[in-house]
Write a structure and sequence with these properties.
Blueprint lengths: L12 H17 L3 H19 L4 E4 L11 H8 L6 E7 L8 E5 L5 E3 L5 E3 L4 E2 L3 E5 L2 E3 L4 E2 L5 H8 L5 E5 L5 E2 L13 E4 L2 E4 L2
Parallel strand pairs: 1-2, 1-7, 7-10, 8-11, 10-12
Antiparallel strand pairs: 2-3, 3-6, 4-5, 8-9, 12-13
């Protein structure tokens, strides 16, 4: 999906996805502090075995709108001795264009980037071979419902080699189907507080 491609949705699908997105965001925001703490602990425990064997560049996300915060797991992953590991955060360079990923460490100076997110103020551009991907919603087949901007689909399609995709969400964000289209990316794994699920 290029930056000039106009997606043609089947009748009603754009509206259905908008309604699902609203419902999933409300459901996520309604988690109590106790529910979120328990869920976060279980999600963190499920992420670590998946990324532990991965070296290279791990792309992840700065949490917004009550998303799971994976920084603790990414930091632990980086701190393993004797491994070639780099972490990177997505940066919007141009509207409707693929994301770029900029090097991140726990010591990185950060700057606000709109929509409640932050990006490293400086750092080298990296090409991830694994991505932790935030999910607004997901379905049993592993397809992702995002915020509607298409940035992750566009980015993944632009990469020379497809990275391993690990979608991260709360279990209450599951839908029967997002009615996937050709441009929708299927995750390799979905991680929730109920554990990890292989999708592809």
């Amino acid at each position: 999906m290029s930056e000039t491609t106009e997606i043609q949705f089947p009748p009603g699908l754009r509206e259905r996805r908008a309604a699902w997105r609203k419902q999933m965001l409300q459901r996520r925001a309604a988690l109590t502090d106790v529910e979120r703490e328990r869920a976060d602990s279980a999600i963190g425990a499920a992420i670590m075995p998946l990324i532990d064997s991965i070296d290279g560049v791990l792309g992840f996300y700065w949490p917004i709108q009550n998303e799971y915060d994976a920084r603790t797991q990414v930091t632990a992953w980086l701190e393993q001795p004797g491994r070639d590991r780099r972490a990177a955060l997505p940066v919007v360079i141009k509207r409707n264009a693929p994301l770029e990923f900029r090097s991140w460490t726990p010591a990185s100076a950060m700057q606000a980037a709109g929509f409640g997110t932050s990006i490293p103020a400086a750092g080298e551009t990296q090409v991830p071979n694994c991505l932790l991907v935030p999910l607004v919603g997901f379905d049993a087949a592993g397809y992702r419902l995002g915020y509607g901007g298409g940035y992750y689909d566009r980015t993944i399609a632009s990469l020379e080699r497809r990275p391993t995709l690990i979608g991260v969400a709360y279990a209450g964000s599951e839908l029967p189907s997002i009615e996937p289209m050709d441009h929708d990316c299927r995750m390799d794994w979905i991680v929730t507080e109920r554990g990890s699920r292989r999708c592809a």
